[in-house]
Amino acid sequence: xxxxxxxxxxxxxxxxxxxxxxxxxxxxxxxxxxxxxxxxxxxxxxxxxxxxxxxxxxxxxxxxxxxxxxxxxxxxxxxxxxxxxxxxxxxxxxxxxxxxxxxxxxxxxxxxxxxxxxxxxxxxxxxxxxxxxxxxxxxxxxxxxxxxxxxxxxxxxxxxxxxxxxxxxxxxxxxxxxxxxxxxxxxxxxxxxxxxxxxxxxxxxxxxxxxxxxxxxxxxxxxxxxxxxxxxxxxxxxxxxxxxxxxxxxxxxxxxxxxxxxxxxxxxxxxxxxxxxxxxxxxxxxxxxxxxxxxxxxxxxxxxxxxxxxxxxxxxxxxxxxxxxxxxxxxxxxxxxxxxxxxxxxxxxxxxxxxxxxxxxxxxxxxxxxxxxxxxxxxxxxxx
Length: 384
Hints:
The chain has 384 residues and is α/β, with parallel strands linked by helices.
């Protein structure tokens, strides 16, 4: 990004953002700064806006068909990750969590044990409850100074205790861990040893730090990877969650016999059009976003060190989400306190499992001025 390039995060004013009708901006009162749900405060990437404008001009608002979206993703995966995906493999679904549920239905039965690495994305819990699977929380290791990491010993014990599947969040939400090839291979070896199928939610994969290349779990040269399921979408990296389109990518050895006949039900045509444009033409804009996220991670580090020195935060390797340890301030649920007293809406750590008590998740995908104002508000009420 050149010095004269304006970051997409700085293009929209707070006044214009407050005119938005999405859940991020309408869940709370207008005086609350919303930094909770994973939406970005940016305009659309120009190629996506152009594609959607063309569709509107044509009145192209009918039912969705996958069209060229699988091919667009196959090309993107090859360029960005070095992952060769069979062009016939990706299946259109409404969103990543729909893909997760379909994959769970294909490889597990009611009452089966499914392992998740907690703290983790709250809809994982909801999906497993809805499908009557047994949730096995396998906590990440946590050190106040070093941050979170995968606890392979604990994961092995949980796999050995009769697990059928492992729901892998990669990059990890909320901690921002990006698992490297060695870590993924260790997971695959354990899964092979104990007969566990891996389902990878890789929705945040495009949003690693620029110096880090995402390694898809399914790209491993391993029989477990070949039998895995991967869920991907453009929705987080290009801010398209309301348009409803994702891809479920089964490995070459994955059992898809239990897939519903109409996987695409619930997908939106605008979602398909937008995602195709993102994967084919949106990489320049994506790189601006990734650079802007790095700047905002560093800004938050500086602000917390100065204004809330008892908070513990490590800059994540992936995602635009900050996972902040606020336990020093003596509250299990600081998010509720900060929303009520500080007028800053953060995602409560308790929603991510018991390991999240005392933590908050803060969305960095916004302007620097909003981040500064949010931390100032937090500091004002926590010091009073």
